[in-house]
Design a protein that fits this description.
Two copies of one chain form a homodimer. Chain A is α+β, with helices and mostly antiparallel strands. Helices cover 41% and strands 13% of the residues of chain A. Chain A binds a DNA duplex (30 and 30 nucleotides) through helix 3.
Chain lengths: 110, 110
DNA sequence: TCCATCGTTCGAATTATTTCGAACCTTTCG
DNA sequence: CGAAAGGTTCGAAATAATTCGAACGATGGA
């Protein structure tokens, strides 16, 4: 009954600005973060722009978002529940999330 | 009298969010941008955290900032004048610069 | 004019990220 | 129990980013 692996997350005070910016500097990762603004989502509900990428790649994208402190990733049944760490990010870098997630993209990265 | 090379800059509408985030996701580049908040600086006045990095490396850091649209780099006498593209960035991504440049860093990237 | 200064560019070497398949684990359901 | 669903991890291969020296160009002053 003990659930799937408990993955490590940085605590609020450990979240680094440059690391967060890096995590969000990839269009695919940014798009994932944006899917979470309206509330948590099961990982299976999180869609990538290319639906054919293997699950290991998707998992790696999630790992970058998790280890940077942008997203929380907890076991949920047989799957995973993803959520934005909005409170932590707002406390640490006020306004950042709002600005980044609401901005118009401009070009995707070449 | 024609001055040193005129380097290419993206125009406002071409500035991409993810590219800007990437440019600022490096601690050294972020530090450079922060030195420009109070006004333009000659490149020679822009200090890196490690004063021993070769000029070609410094030039490359500047190139990333320039090609992303964060910084303007124009010839100025025998040197170069650097400035934040605040108006363009504020127009394109309102609030982003304020938030990022005023935020406390947290850890530098490992 | 000659030369030192300030910076860019190029190419090669190093290092970091990304991508993906295979192996593995847990939960759910028949 | 057994098998399918949903995900993580590992390692290797492919890509991308960084670093630096050397070569070059333009400017300003002696």
């Amino acid at each position: 009954m003990s659930s799937s692996p408990d993955l490590p997350h940085p605590e609020r005070s450990e979240i680094s600005l440059t690391t967060v910016l890096f995590a969000l500097s990839d269009p695919e990762r940014l798009a994932i973060a944006r899917q979470l603004v309206d509330g948590p989502l099961d990982m299976a509900e999180c869609h990538l722009s290319n639906p054919d990428v293997p699950k290991s790649t998707k998992s790696h994208l999630m790992k970058v978002l998790r280890t940077s402190g942008v997203v929380r990733n907890e076991a949920n049944g047989r799957g995973r529940r993803l959520s934005l760490r909005r409170e932590d990010l707002d406390a640490r870098f006020p306004g950042l999330l709002d600005v980044v997630l609401s901005a118009e993209d401009g070009d995707a990265k070449p």
